[in-house]
């Protein structure tokens, strides 16, 4: 039986070159980067090099990068660190109904703390209305957090236009770019982004690494207490091996970005073509015009998601029903519910996501096996 991993939006395998990059920092270069002796200076240089590379990749300056443990911490820090900063007078914040739970649950916490939260709705393509955003802004609005690319559907938002609107109003703008970073060109200045979150394990780096961009001058209050690492913004000895790995993974992604984009587009089109040839019924969930190609979310009406996933696994195909952070839940995806309400397609959806190691023959195999399973279960 052939094994095909199509759940890269949940996590990705570590690139072999990234592993090689890490090894010296797990063996001879073990110094604490805050130490002044040469052991510490060796690892400090690795942090400095990584910070510079990551900053350059998004058009930022090196002092605007905070290394974190991943996307969740970056989202938490971005939101809590800014709204709680001294001088913030307003108590109104805005996000969307389809954010990752790292953002949604943080906004739920803000509600408990007395903040007024607006959750923007989305249409059946998973896109917000810019008019609704504009209507929602008030004199008390201090932060808007809207993800760049949805982790379940691949749908993208008009981040550049959103950034323009918020800059004119002098309202801080945070975007969760976990699914976008490394796959498309990002420039925080062109996009008018004040805070940006990214995660290493989505770009073939180990789990436990990530970063947060915080624009110079944005009021920010640290949420952890301890040492003075990361310019007093995030206490704790830095994960040097993980950060070195993140730098390498980001540099590889930067170099291969256009090639990967074309490859994933081909994979996406191939799956849909095979299903059409097999004459099985499916509905694509997301936007046909505004999306990133590494995620394909489809509904096979009449086939329950859990049953389909189990059968796919038995055929050697790893896919998912959405965010890995809600794995085990029998509730329909909050993203699809926001898009379609209680429509049956929310109960028969599967997410296929592409990445390192996938080949065209793997995609064709997975598509044909999926068609066989759907035909069998539909009976």
TrEMBL record:
Its EC number is 2.8.1.7. One of its GO terms (molecular function) is metal ion binding. Keywords: Iron, Iron-sulfur, Metal-binding, Pyridoxal phosphate, Transferase. The keyword Ion transport does not apply. Residues 4-365 form the Aminotransferase class V domain. SUPFAM superfamilies: PLP-dependent transferases. It catalyses: (sulfur carrier)-H + L-cysteine = (sulfur carrier)-SH + L-alanine. InterPro entries: Aminotrans_V_dom, Aminotrans_V_PyrdxlP_BS, Cysteine_dSase, PyrdxlP-dep_Trfase, PyrdxlP-dep_Trfase_major, PyrdxlP-dep_Trfase_small. Pfam families: Aminotran_5 (PF00266). Its cofactor is pyridoxal 5'-phosphate. Belongs to the class-V pyridoxal-phosphate-dependent aminotransferase family. NifS/IscS subfamily. NCBIfam families: PRK02948.1. This is cysteine desulfurase. The lineage of its organism: Bacteria, Bacillati, Bacillota, Bacilli, Bacillales.
């Amino acid at each position: 039986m052939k094994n095909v991993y199509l759940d890269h939006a949940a996590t990705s395998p570590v690139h072999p070159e990234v592993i090689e990059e890490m090894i010296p920092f797990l063996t001879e270069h073990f110094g604490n980067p805050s130490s002044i002796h040469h052991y510490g200076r060796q690892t400090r240089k690795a942090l400095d090099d990584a910070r510079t590379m990551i900053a350059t990749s998004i058009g930022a300056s090196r002092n605007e990068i905070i290394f974190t443990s991943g996307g969740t911490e970056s989202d938490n820090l971005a939101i809590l660190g800014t709204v709680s900063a001294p001088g913030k007078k307003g108590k109104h914040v805005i996000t969307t109904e389809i954010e990752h739970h790292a953002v949604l649950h943080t906004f739920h916490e803000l509600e408990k703390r007395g903040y007024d939260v607006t959750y923007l709705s989305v249409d059946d393509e998973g896109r917000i209305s810019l008019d609704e955003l504009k209507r929602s802004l008030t004199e008390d609005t201090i932060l808007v957090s809207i993800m760049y690319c949805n982790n379940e559907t691949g749908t993208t938002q008009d981040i550049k236009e959103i950034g323009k609107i918020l800059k004119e109003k002098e309202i801080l703008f945070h975007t969760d770019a976990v699914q976008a970073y490394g796959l498309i060109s990002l420039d925080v200045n062109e996009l008018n982004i004040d805070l940006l979150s990214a995660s290493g394990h989505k770009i073939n780096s180990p789990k436990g690494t990530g970063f947060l961009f915080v624009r110079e001058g944005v009021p920010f209050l640290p949420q952890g207490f301890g040492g003075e690492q990361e310019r007093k913004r995030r206490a704790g000895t830095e994960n040097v091996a993980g950060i070195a790995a993140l730098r390498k993974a980001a540099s590889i992604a930067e170099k291969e970005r256009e090639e990967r984009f074309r490859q994933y587009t081909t994979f996406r089109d191939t799956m849909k073509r095979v299903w059409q040839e097999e004459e099985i019924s499916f509905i694509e969930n997301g936007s046909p015009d505004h999306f990133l190609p590494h995620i394909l979310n489809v509904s096979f009406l009449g086939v329950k998601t859990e049953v389909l996933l189990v059968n796919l696994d038995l055929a050697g195909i790893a896919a998912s029903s959405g965010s890995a952070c809600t794995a085990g839940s029998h509730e329909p995806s909050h993203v699809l519910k926001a898009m379609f309400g209680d429509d049956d397609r929310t109960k028969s959806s599967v997410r296929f996501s592409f990445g390192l190691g996938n080949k065209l023959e793997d995609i064709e195999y997975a598509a044909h096996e999926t068609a066989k399973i759907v035909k069998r279960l539909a009976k």
